[in-house]
User: Fold this.
Amino acid sequence: MKHRLYLSVLTMSLIVFFGSFVVASGKKVEKLPEKKAPEYFEIHTPGTEDVVDYAKYGEFKNVGTNKYKYVPSDYKGLKEASGEGIWPNQESVFKSPRYKELMREKKLEGDKWTYVNTRNTELNYYKWATAQEDPGVRQYYIALALENAGNYERAIKAYYSIVVFFPKAIGYTFWKTPWYVAPVAIEKIKYLTREHPEIGLKLVDAYVDVINRFDDEKSNDDFIADPGKLVRATSKDWIVKPVDLKKVGIKKTVGKGKVKLVEYNNKHYQLFVDNKPFIVRGICYSPNPVGTSPDNGTLNASRDWMFADYNDNAIIDGPYESWVDENRNERKDENEQVVGDFKLMKDMGINTLRLYHYPDFNKELLMDGYKNYGFMYMIGNFLGMYCTDSGAEWFEGTDYTNEEQCQRMLASVEKMVNEYKDEPYVLMWVLGNENNYGTVGVVGVAAGTGCNVRKDVPAYYRFINRCAKRIKELDPQQRPVAICNGDTLFMDICAKNAPELDIYGANAYRGKEGFATLWKDVMKLYERPVVVTEYGCPAFSKIHNQKEAEEQQAIYHEGSIKNIQENVAGYGVGNALGGIIFEWTDEWWKAGPPPEYDFNAHDETAQWEGPFIDGGGYEEWFGLVSIGDGKDCPFKRQLRKAYYSIQSLWKKYKM
Assistant:
């Protein structure tokens, strides 16, 4: 049975870890959080232990192998310790008076998948606790309901039962690709214990390695599980002392000009610009006017903003003439002066803009952004995505086994490098835009992406390698070359076929917890630094008001930025170079072409399901900045909470 799990296309079959066993903290009745969340609900029989001592009730066998298994010997004691809804005591929910009351009131009727992202977390909990479903998947949604209710201690307890009992649990994403439940449960525990140190717990040494996880099949998967521990922790346990990189020493340097990529002897990586450490704090920027769209030929989102002058005053609109509607009254008041996006971005802390595909950039504008606002640019080439430069027919898609098409694309790469190799603002070269997700449409249907990587996946990555090698021959400054992959799908094939790449770039939308095992996975398989080439969250939800949705968007971004910072050189895995936020302003054309969608409307339709506020990927709402009612566009800006929270975090982290 295929499960509709609420994860992004960018997490397809990718997050794969596992955690294991837990240290007892002594028997006691589970206590409620000091401050109840609005959705908080009581648990009828919470269990005798707030942290279950699984070793007391059974045995962990074959730890660290693909035969790992936890075997209970005292089911009665384990059930009493676990309490209602926690495996192996899920059936006790049926005895709950509250459950019986809800059943009498017929409040638990209907499809269980509609009980995931509702605001009534109590209904979500009871529906999933009694659902017919894979036990690991069922336990995950029980835990999620508890987390959303603010009952974090019990949520950790529920997530951890997945780790102990169901390390091999598999569901399916919205995109019908395998989703590994236990690794996500581990990351949930790490996030909750870190964000709520008052709980006083920390998960250590827990992992699961899913062999062959980077494809989109489950038949060849194998699970290596090693139990970790939930241990008692104080605030001191969360203090991380950075590694002294000067003492570690440099192993290798890529780059001969103002941009250098340094690899240290401990396999940490760091970018330098003008000999100063540089963390990518970037943005995707395409402030198009309402009503324009690539779908009707009125917009080239990669470049049009660089020349737009809709008020005919010889000043480029978005970068220099935007103004902030501070009170959101949809009009420009006397005190709301023109400031410009470039100034707003600089004030926020942005130091990098990602430019997706190179032709016809406004060099004068880019130079001004570099000189007066401190921006560096990631210069990109779609490399056949959307049939760009390959000459392929849309419904056949770019074919990386076709040498004629490859020659056209290689010529495009050469032109890009020759045109920009002498510009001081080039931070790195970026190849592709999640081409590994490329699909070919069906004749008569506006579907697909005009890219046919799956015809021969290794051929695509061999071509990536060919382009990277050619760039290094042409660029006298030897700036690093990155790929933009869709998360880690086919990363194993990339690692085998593209040794010339300097940086692994990934568009990754994994949730408010950050990027999970991305850093470790890339380091283990590819030994490369990572730049997250896209990450973000829509500021819209059908179950929250606008203020709440914007608060949740801010929380999502805060988690992402913290996770990046935890893995930069000197910390954690040490291979995080930074990330690019998707995106600056909302784009009202993203929901699709008319007649179903209106380019002049801010559509509230989710194009896909992902780990977002209410599970919806609302493509038209990803901006850190709203354009309000769409009038006075492209000048009006309404800064969302995420703008200010990111600004604050980056100031805290300084570099």
Q: What stands out?
A: Residues 9-238 form one domain. The radius of gyration is 25 Å. The chain is about 30% helix and 15% strand.
